[in-house]
Amino acid sequence: MRSVASSLLSNNAFFIEFQGYLSNHAKHAIVALERLNAKESRVQYYWDEYTTLTPYGLTLKPSKPWKDIALEPSVHNKEWFRSLRGKKEQWQEMCMYLEEERINRFGGSADKLVQEYAPDLLGGIAGALTHGIIHLGWGIDASNDWMTVEGLAYLNFCYLGVDESKLTVSGDDATAGPMKALENVAREFHIQSLAENWVDKTKKTYNDKKNFHPELVVAGFQWELSKLLEAPHEVATTVPAILSQGSLDDLWKQWYHTVTWIYLATRDEKGVGNFLVLHLVTSLWGLEHVCRVINKEEVTRQALQEFYASAVCLLAASAGGFPTENTLQSIQTTFPLNSRDDASEFDWTPVVERGIQETEEHNIKLVYVMRELWNRYDRWQGFSTAADSFTTTPNIGPASKSYKA
User: Distance between CA atoms of 153 and 89, rounded to whole angstroms?
Assistant: First the structure.
């Protein structure tokens, strides 16, 4: 990281959320801009604009004075940290605690800090609409210690997911990848009328604003999603067998193809990308970086199972509902895995320049990740097409209980 980006990622002037539930995306954009080799003046300009007024037309929340936060070793320990899981409380205190752990216990190593604390947090990757795992993973991508600390604290702060004890491995074809499994989910959605018999029914069941995740009520869609995560249908909890058996490198590849197909399949008639589905792409990128630091096969497999269950719930909770089986099959016909761009003819310059100039930071991240995947996985046309399928900034507010997908 160059000096401007490094300095901005180490900035601690702003809280991790604003307006009570919206994630502060500023640093995600800085990582992507830096990776796209934007001019440092552009990197600084983006930060200045976003931290003055976000694309949502809302302002960030300043951090409370760090000097006013005092930690007491007899109180602020690992048990205290664990007790705050998912409560959306004391994020700054958790940051300070983790920073002291990094420096004093792990000799300054952010990797060792992640290896100690992250494995127990990967069951909550759906929290804050996946922004906890995004912030952590993108901090690791940037090799920035402070952003990594922030991400670990945020993942604990917003922890939300499917209880891993509910997950079971499918007894079906062990070679079937995640995309095939999601096709089967789409079929069951139709056969069992799950939009009514699971999604609508569950949303009505868990509708007590005082006693069911009251901290998420203001978040609208996040509260609706939490209901499905609390009572997931077996289509979400029965995970593909390949996730417990297949080559991990191949699984990452299959997952990236899968989330990109879904992103392409859920574009609107004008080719505009789906804001909600885009988070599957950027959170998977974050999750991979976290898992590679942890470097334990069993942790990675469990995390990918959680990602599957959370993805099913997220898509099911969306306003557009779970994509149809035909939609998922058709996009694979349109973008078969053997469709590749000619390296000598394809030019990334226009889409990269377009991304760098974006105000909507999700599009900057989209271009960065898709270009990286295109280079990694044989120049697949799905990646290059998705990179140029920008999303739009949604009208977000307390009344926004759904995102179209």
Answer: 10
